[in-house]
Amino acid sequence: MPDLKLTDQQLTFFRTFGFLAFPGLLKDRIDEIIREFEAIFATRGGGHAGKPHEGKQRSCIVPFIDQSAVLSSLLDDPRIHGIASGLLGDDFNFMPSDGNYYAGDTGWHSDGWNKDTLHIKIAFYLDPLTRDTGCLRVIPGSHKDGDKYAKSVDEQVYKCQENWGLAGRDVPCMALESVPGDILVFNHNTKHAAFGGNGWRRMFTMNLCERYPEARIQELRDYLSPVSRFWVPRAYGEIMMKTAGPQRMRHLEQVMANDGHIAELSRKARATMAEPSRG
Ligand SMILES: O=C(O)CCC(=O)C(=O)O
Prior knowledge:
Blueprint: H1 8-17, E1 19-22, H2 30-43, E2 47-48, E3 51-52, E4 59-61, H3 69-72, H4 78-88, E5 93-95, E6 99-102, E7 106-109, E8 119-125, E9 136-138, H5 148-156, H6 160-164, E10 174-176, E11 183-187, E12 192-194, E13 201-209, H7 217-224, H8 238-242, H9 246-256, H10 262-272
Antiparallel strand pairs: 1-11, 2-3, 4-6, 5-13, 6-13, 7-12, 8-11, 8-13, 9-10, 9-12
This protein binds 2-oxoglutaric acid.
Protein backbone atom coordinates (compact mmCIF):
# COMPACT_ATOMS: atom_id res chain seq x y z
CA MET A 1 0.00 0.00 0.00
CA PRO A 2 1.54 3.39 -0.90
CA ASP A 3 1.73 6.08 1.80
CA LEU A 4 -1.43 8.10 2.35
CA LYS A 5 -0.93 11.52 0.80
CA LEU A 6 -2.57 14.44 2.56
CA THR A 7 -4.47 16.77 0.27
CA ASP A 8 -3.67 20.47 0.04
CA GLN A 9 -6.98 21.14 1.80
CA GLN A 10 -6.03 18.88 4.71
CA LEU A 11 -2.64 20.60 5.04
CA THR A 12 -4.23 24.05 4.95
CA PHE A 13 -6.89 22.99 7.47
CA PHE A 14 -4.23 21.63 9.83
CA ARG A 15 -2.13 24.80 9.62
CA THR A 16 -5.21 26.98 10.20
CA PHE A 17 -7.06 25.04 12.90
CA GLY A 18 -4.36 22.83 14.46
CA PHE A 19 -6.01 19.43 14.13
CA LEU A 20 -7.29 16.82 11.66
CA ALA A 21 -9.71 13.90 12.02
CA PHE A 22 -9.60 10.72 9.94
CA PRO A 23 -12.83 8.75 10.54
CA GLY A 24 -12.39 4.98 10.15
CA LEU A 25 -8.81 5.25 8.92
CA LEU A 26 -7.50 2.27 10.91
CA LYS A 27 -10.77 0.36 11.25
CA ASP A 28 -9.23 -2.69 9.57
CA ARG A 29 -6.59 -2.98 12.35
CA ILE A 30 -8.70 -2.04 15.35
CA ASP A 31 -9.21 -5.58 16.69
CA GLU A 32 -5.47 -6.28 16.90
CA ILE A 33 -4.83 -2.77 18.24
CA ILE A 34 -7.28 -3.25 21.14
CA ARG A 35 -5.96 -6.76 21.81
CA GLU A 36 -2.38 -5.45 22.07
CA PHE A 37 -3.44 -2.48 24.22
CA GLU A 38 -5.07 -4.84 26.72
CA ALA A 39 -2.12 -7.25 26.60
CA ILE A 40 0.36 -4.48 27.50
CA PHE A 41 -1.76 -3.33 30.45
CA ALA A 42 -2.15 -6.97 31.56
CA THR A 43 1.65 -7.30 31.81
CA ARG A 44 1.64 -4.24 34.14
CA GLY A 45 -0.93 -5.57 36.56
CA GLY A 46 -3.80 -4.07 34.56
CA GLY A 47 -3.15 -0.45 35.52
CA HIS A 48 -0.49 1.75 37.05
CA ALA A 49 2.73 0.68 38.76
CA GLY A 50 1.70 -2.98 38.93
CA LYS A 51 -1.75 -2.30 40.40
CA PRO A 52 -5.12 -2.73 38.66
CA HIS A 53 -6.78 0.37 37.24
CA GLU A 54 -9.65 1.30 39.55
CA GLY A 55 -11.38 3.95 37.46
CA LYS A 56 -10.47 6.78 39.80
CA GLN A 57 -7.10 8.08 38.62
CA ARG A 58 -5.38 7.97 35.25
CA SER A 59 -3.17 4.93 34.64
CA CYS A 60 -0.40 5.65 32.17
CA ILE A 61 2.39 3.62 30.54
CA VAL A 62 5.31 5.35 28.75
CA PRO A 63 6.69 4.44 26.26
CA PHE A 64 3.63 2.53 25.15
CA ILE A 65 3.45 1.26 21.58
CA ASP A 66 7.10 0.23 22.04
CA GLN A 67 5.93 -2.67 24.27
CA SER A 68 4.36 -4.53 21.34
CA ALA A 69 5.74 -5.46 17.91
CA VAL A 70 2.24 -5.04 16.45
CA LEU A 71 1.73 -1.55 17.89
CA SER A 72 5.31 -0.56 17.02
CA SER A 73 4.48 -1.43 13.41
CA LEU A 74 1.89 1.38 13.39
CA LEU A 75 4.85 3.63 12.69
CA ASP A 76 5.40 1.72 9.43
CA ASP A 77 1.72 1.72 8.48
CA PRO A 78 1.41 3.71 5.22
CA ARG A 79 -1.51 5.67 6.62
CA ILE A 80 0.28 6.77 9.80
CA HIS A 81 3.58 7.17 7.96
CA GLY A 82 1.85 9.25 5.28
CA ILE A 83 0.18 11.57 7.81
CA ALA A 84 3.46 12.07 9.70
CA SER A 85 5.54 12.65 6.55
CA GLY A 86 2.92 15.01 5.13
CA LEU A 87 2.84 17.19 8.25
CA LEU A 88 6.44 16.92 9.45
CA GLY A 89 8.57 15.98 6.45
CA ASP A 90 10.04 12.63 5.36
CA ASP A 91 12.73 12.78 8.06
CA PHE A 92 10.30 13.20 11.00
CA ASN A 93 11.16 11.87 14.47
CA PHE A 94 9.04 9.42 16.41
CA MET A 95 8.82 10.53 20.07
CA PRO A 96 7.82 8.62 23.22
CA SER A 97 4.21 7.43 23.17
CA ASP A 98 1.80 6.92 26.06
CA GLY A 99 -0.97 4.40 26.77
CA ASN A 100 -3.77 5.34 29.15
CA TYR A 101 -6.81 4.43 31.07
CA TYR A 102 -8.19 7.92 31.63
CA ALA A 103 -10.52 8.54 34.56
CA GLY A 104 -12.97 11.45 34.40
CA ASP A 105 -12.33 14.89 32.91
CA THR A 106 -9.12 16.29 31.46
CA GLY A 107 -8.97 20.08 31.74
CA TRP A 108 -7.91 22.42 28.95
CA HIS A 109 -4.18 22.42 28.18
CA SER A 110 -1.51 22.33 25.48
CA ASP A 111 1.10 19.58 25.41
CA GLY A 112 3.87 22.11 26.00
CA TRP A 113 4.39 25.03 23.64
CA ASN A 114 6.70 24.63 20.68
CA LYS A 115 7.68 27.70 18.68
CA ASP A 116 10.30 26.43 16.26
CA THR A 117 9.66 22.72 15.89
CA LEU A 118 6.28 21.24 15.04
CA HIS A 119 5.24 18.44 17.41
CA ILE A 120 2.08 16.46 16.74
CA LYS A 121 0.05 13.84 18.56
CA ILE A 122 -1.84 11.02 16.89
CA ALA A 123 -4.58 9.85 19.25
CA PHE A 124 -6.24 6.44 19.19
CA TYR A 125 -9.40 6.28 21.32
CA LEU A 126 -10.50 2.69 21.82
CA ASP A 127 -14.11 3.24 22.96
CA PRO A 128 -16.99 5.11 21.26
CA LEU A 129 -16.99 8.62 22.71
CA THR A 130 -19.32 11.56 22.32
CA ARG A 131 -19.10 15.20 23.33
CA ASP A 132 -20.42 14.45 26.82
CA THR A 133 -18.83 11.05 27.37
CA GLY A 134 -15.19 12.03 27.09
CA CYS A 135 -14.33 12.59 23.43
CA LEU A 136 -11.37 14.79 22.59
CA ARG A 137 -12.27 18.48 22.34
CA VAL A 138 -10.04 21.06 20.67
CA ILE A 139 -10.08 24.85 20.39
CA PRO A 140 -9.49 25.50 16.69
CA GLY A 141 -6.71 28.01 16.00
CA SER A 142 -5.34 27.94 19.55
CA HIS A 143 -2.03 26.46 18.36
CA LYS A 144 -0.59 29.47 16.53
CA ASP A 145 2.55 30.92 18.09
CA GLY A 146 2.58 34.72 17.93
CA ASP A 147 -1.16 34.93 17.18
CA LYS A 148 -3.27 37.33 19.29
CA TYR A 149 -6.30 35.03 19.50
CA ALA A 150 -4.19 32.01 20.49
CA LYS A 151 -2.38 34.13 23.08
CA SER A 152 -5.62 35.27 24.69
CA VAL A 153 -6.96 31.71 24.79
CA ASP A 154 -3.69 30.60 26.38
CA GLU A 155 -3.83 33.37 28.98
CA GLN A 156 -7.49 32.85 29.88
CA VAL A 157 -8.58 29.24 29.39
CA TYR A 158 -6.84 27.85 32.46
CA LYS A 159 -9.12 30.04 34.59
CA CYS A 160 -12.14 29.94 32.27
CA GLN A 161 -14.65 30.17 35.12
CA GLU A 162 -13.05 33.32 36.47
CA ASN A 163 -12.29 34.90 33.06
CA TRP A 164 -15.34 33.89 31.01
CA GLY A 165 -17.87 32.67 33.58
CA LEU A 166 -17.72 29.26 31.92
CA ALA A 167 -17.04 25.77 33.22
CA GLY A 168 -14.40 23.91 31.18
CA ARG A 169 -17.10 21.79 29.51
CA ASP A 170 -18.86 24.95 28.25
CA VAL A 171 -15.85 26.56 26.57
CA PRO A 172 -16.47 27.02 22.80
CA CYS A 173 -14.68 24.23 20.99
CA MET A 174 -14.89 21.44 18.45
CA ALA A 175 -15.89 18.07 19.97
CA LEU A 176 -14.23 15.30 17.94
CA GLU A 177 -16.67 12.49 18.60
CA SER A 178 -15.04 9.20 17.67
CA VAL A 179 -15.43 5.44 17.37
CA PRO A 180 -12.57 2.91 17.55
CA GLY A 181 -10.59 2.96 14.30
CA ASP A 182 -10.84 6.75 13.91
CA ILE A 183 -7.58 8.68 14.06
CA LEU A 184 -7.30 12.16 15.56
CA VAL A 185 -4.24 14.32 14.97
CA PHE A 186 -3.35 17.62 16.60
CA ASN A 187 -0.52 20.11 17.00
CA HIS A 188 0.83 19.83 20.58
CA ASN A 189 0.18 23.57 20.98
CA THR A 190 -3.56 23.14 20.30
CA LYS A 191 -5.66 23.54 23.44
CA HIS A 192 -7.47 20.28 24.11
CA ALA A 193 -9.56 18.64 26.83
CA ALA A 194 -12.19 15.93 27.47
CA PHE A 195 -15.29 16.04 29.68
CA GLY A 196 -17.84 13.56 30.97
CA GLY A 197 -15.87 10.37 30.40
CA ASN A 198 -16.17 7.40 32.72
CA GLY A 199 -13.30 5.97 34.71
CA TRP A 200 -12.16 3.56 32.02
CA ARG A 201 -11.51 5.56 28.87
CA ARG A 202 -8.88 3.72 26.83
CA MET A 203 -6.55 5.80 24.72
CA PHE A 204 -3.00 5.73 23.43
CA THR A 205 -0.96 8.20 21.48
CA MET A 206 1.91 8.41 19.06
CA ASN A 207 3.94 11.60 19.37
CA LEU A 208 6.01 12.81 16.45
CA CYS A 209 7.98 15.91 15.54
CA GLU A 210 10.07 17.54 12.86
CA ARG A 211 13.72 16.56 12.84
CA TYR A 212 15.79 18.93 14.98
CA PRO A 213 18.59 20.84 13.24
CA GLU A 214 22.00 20.01 14.79
CA ALA A 215 22.33 23.63 16.00
CA ARG A 216 19.30 23.07 18.30
CA ILE A 217 20.04 19.48 19.31
CA GLN A 218 20.21 20.39 23.01
CA GLU A 219 16.51 21.34 22.76
CA LEU A 220 15.73 17.79 21.69
CA ARG A 221 17.73 16.37 24.62
CA ASP A 222 15.91 18.68 27.03
CA TYR A 223 12.59 17.77 25.48
CA LEU A 224 13.30 14.07 26.10
CA SER A 225 14.38 14.49 29.74
CA PRO A 226 10.89 14.28 31.34
CA VAL A 227 10.49 10.70 30.04
CA SER A 228 12.68 9.79 33.04
CA ARG A 229 9.61 10.38 35.27
CA PHE A 230 8.56 6.95 34.02
CA TRP A 231 11.81 5.32 35.23
CA VAL A 232 12.85 4.12 31.79
CA PRO A 233 16.43 3.50 30.62
CA ARG A 234 15.91 5.03 27.16
CA ALA A 235 13.39 7.10 25.21
CA TYR A 236 12.23 4.03 23.27
CA GLY A 237 11.44 0.49 24.36
CA GLU A 238 13.50 -2.50 23.22
CA ILE A 239 10.82 -3.95 20.94
CA MET A 240 10.41 -0.70 19.01
CA MET A 241 14.16 -0.55 18.34
CA LYS A 242 14.74 -4.27 17.74
CA THR A 243 11.90 -4.69 15.23
CA ALA A 244 12.76 -1.55 13.23
CA GLY A 245 13.55 -1.90 9.54
CA PRO A 246 15.48 0.82 7.66
CA GLN A 247 12.42 3.02 7.09
CA ARG A 248 11.42 3.05 10.78
CA MET A 249 15.02 3.46 11.92
CA ARG A 250 15.19 6.74 10.01
CA HIS A 251 12.52 8.05 12.40
CA LEU A 252 14.27 6.70 15.52
CA GLU A 253 17.92 7.47 14.95
CA GLN A 254 18.04 11.13 16.01
CA VAL A 255 16.38 10.38 19.34
CA MET A 256 18.46 7.22 19.87
CA ALA A 257 21.62 9.30 19.34
CA ASN A 258 20.45 11.86 21.94
CA ASP A 259 18.84 9.92 24.78
CA GLY A 260 22.04 8.93 26.61
CA HIS A 261 21.16 11.11 29.60
CA ILE A 262 17.82 9.40 30.32
CA ALA A 263 19.20 6.42 32.27
CA GLU A 264 20.86 8.60 34.91
CA LEU A 265 17.83 10.90 35.21
CA SER A 266 15.60 7.83 35.61
CA ARG A 267 17.87 6.43 38.30
CA LYS A 268 17.52 9.70 40.22
CA ALA A 269 13.75 9.77 39.70
CA ARG A 270 13.46 6.22 41.00
CA ALA A 271 15.44 7.20 44.09
CA THR A 272 13.13 10.15 44.87
CA MET A 273 9.63 9.26 43.56
CA ALA A 274 7.34 6.75 45.29
CA GLU A 275 6.14 5.42 41.90
CA PRO A 276 6.47 6.34 38.19
CA SER A 277 4.48 9.36 37.03
CA ARG A 278 0.80 8.95 36.04
CA GLY A 279 1.00 11.25 33.07
O1 LIG B 1 -8.56 12.23 26.33
C1 LIG B 1 -8.18 12.96 27.23
O2 LIG B 1 -8.66 12.93 28.36
C2 LIG B 1 -7.10 13.99 26.98
C3 LIG B 1 -5.96 13.56 26.13
C4 LIG B 1 -4.81 14.48 26.26
O3 LIG B 1 -4.88 15.48 26.92
C5 LIG B 1 -3.55 14.19 25.60
O4 LIG B 1 -3.36 13.11 25.06
O5 LIG B 1 -2.68 15.07 25.61
